Amino acid sequence: MVLCAVPAAMALANRSSPVVVGLAALLFLAAALIEDRRGAWRNLSAPLTTPLGLCALAFLGWCGLSLAWSPFPGLSLKVAGEFTPTLAGAYLLARLAPGRMAPGAASLGAWMLALACAFIVVDLASDLALRRLLGGRIAYFVHNRPAMTILLIGIPLAGLLTMRRQRWAVIVVVALCLAAILRSVSGAASLGLVAALATALVVRLAPKRVALGLAGAGLGFALTIAPIEGDVLQRFMPEAAHQRLVQSSSRARVAIAQSFGAAVAAEPWRGAGYGTSARFAEVPAAAGLAPEFREMLAVGHPHNSFLQVWAELGIIGAALAGAILMLMLTALAALPRASHLPALSLVAAAAAIAFVEHGAWQSWWTAGLGAAIAWWRESTVRQPEA
């Protein structure tokens, strides 16, 4: 029930998912330990001994090691103190929830997701009347994080409901998710939606190897181009595109990407240190940059998680991140084809959002991904019901 409540909680309070996911993770952990302590430990430890798990641990280890040269160790520790518990909760939930959910969990999850979508649509249509009634912050963008969380969770939940042959529930969930995402002012959520739908179409029409190959190429491209994204956009993005994206502050985003890309070039190997983006204008790598670049570095993060990894963790961190992404797709390739559509659609949506939106270590994002993966893994361990 707590896991099902994640979208509704985010609609009411758009930073609440770490608390809700953490509580759900603790409840599943307690149940697993009571049920079978040794089995629970094997379930949690086994993935960490695989190539993917070892690579993920190496990436986290490099994040920790980078604190040694971080110019702001207090800031780095603060970011790690917020990210690490949420990551642990997301991992516990993704590993322990699948296979242990009650038979009606998918239906309850659909109702809670529908409630969150309806709340967003009604609130935006009424000029935020519901938020005024509840005393919340009055701004349209407060629904951006809930919209992105709804997209992440809606994809695997729709896949699970399809597997359960609950077609009407699928139709309602998809329709309300589309309405909430498209009604919101979140361009990132809309981009993620387009990426997910395009990927679903490719998975449906193309052979498995082609779909996985395209996914790998897309992820590799996003990671590789990140340090030069700003320069590429500055040179080739037409003025008409900037005019259409004026509400998304496209010019400022291009300038931010250029600034962080210049900082990557100044310290390419090891980066500035984990969690330093909030004060990136003050890191040593920024000292030799032009004043206009240093000014844009003060925004807090580059609005591109791939670029943030480059800037904070350098080539080594980016290489480890790339290895994790490719090993993830390799693991997906070994699963039945029925699992590929929701899995690759979720990957595409998450990657598209990460390329244009929030900071890499934000807890609400990590918690949302953990909940989405838990729902997807539930569909891989449950047989279709008659």
Task: Note down, in words, how this protein is organized.
By secondary structure, the chain is mainly α. It has one domain. It is 72% helix and 0% strand. Helix 2 crosses helix 5 and helix 11 runs antiparallel to helix 16. The longest helix has 29 residues. The protein is globular, with a radius of gyration of 21 Å.
Order of helices and strands: HHHHHHHHHHHHHHHHHH
Content-based structural category: mainly alpha
Q: Report helical residue fraction.
A: over 70%
Through-space gap between termini: 24 Å
As a percent range, the share of strand residues is under 5%
- Poorly predicted sequence stretches spanning 5 or more consecutive residues: none
Number of domains: 1
Mean pLDDT over the full residue set: 90
- Rg over CA atoms, rounded to whole Å, is 21 Å
Number of helices: 18
